[in-house]
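Teaching note: in complex prediction, the entire set of molecules is handled at once rather than each chain in isolation. The prompt given to students was simply: 'Predict the structure of this complex.' The entities are:
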Amino acid sequence: MMFKTRICDLLGIRYPIIQGGMAWVSDAALAAAVSEAGGLGIIAAGNAPADWVENEIIKAKEITDKPFGVNIMLLSPYVDDVVDVVVKHKVKVITTGAGSPGKYMDRFKEIGAKVIPVVASVALAKRMEKEGADAVVAEGMESGGHIGELTTMALVPQVVDAVDIPVIAAGGIADGRGFVAALALGAEGVQMGTRFVASVECTIAEAYKKVIVEAKDRDTVITGRTTGHPVRIIKNKLAREFMKLENSGATKEELEKFGEGKLRIAAREGDVKNGSVMAGQIAGLINDIKPVSEIISDIMEEAKEVLSNLNRLGDG
Ligand code: TUI
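The expected output is the structure of the full assembly:
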């Protein structure tokens, strides 16, 4: 099997492709579809209460026998309850975002879960390895949602050199070229979010998928830098209002209050003007809505082609 890496063995999956944990997007239906297609599906807890997460875990287990994960958003007000739920259900893989999962690590390890924190810096990657992480996702600022400062191209090889555990690259990857590029940087897998939003199995509002399919290269902006939580979203009415408020010197509290609930409005209600449409810079490359299995098989096919072209180039 081509492209079999330590990530495949660690997670018991066929292809080293994992689906990003996206709040209001990554539910049991999407996660199970990705796992069934040979990748690793992830249910995102986001800011949802623990009973929603529990329900999705139960649903995913009904749809697939394959491994799947849960992403814990560490800024969630329900984080402690969500941790209880993933421990209760012995979830196989736990990814985390927007912070350090250090204080929960022992409980995750006790149930035999593989722990994969998402990091945006070398320092946090090293700390996570020391605290027992099984792998890390190195996420560049090309990603949608809450981001760090470094690009994927700069971050991934620096994290690869700093740790011995496998590194999964995220941010700006949506096709076979990006997949091979990530491996060239030393990553042993990729995590994709935006590409899986534009899938048939994704249960998000159709209007949200349409925005991604129609997006061009420069259609995302970063908001929230002044709050300490920079977030990449599609430039729309909400983004312009948020930036105006931010430039007028609004306080962190005012900005957070304004942003509250806006992702749900876009993702579940389909109001892509007044809602927050989180998406990565690679949205401009995504021009179709495909079944998850096709997304994955197309990437693997293209990756083989890209690699053989590179081989010829190397021989020449
Ligand atoms: O977490 C994400 N992406 C997200 S979370 C989210 S919900 C949210 N919405 C508004 C504000 C805040 C959150 C939407 N998208 N990706 C993983 C990620 N983690 N990106 C960056 C980080 C990160 C940043 C700082 C991880 C750790 C960190 O510092 C922790 C420390 O203790 O050093």
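Point out the following to students. The chain has a mean pLDDT of 97. The domain at 6-203 is CATH 3.20.20.70 (TIM Barrel).
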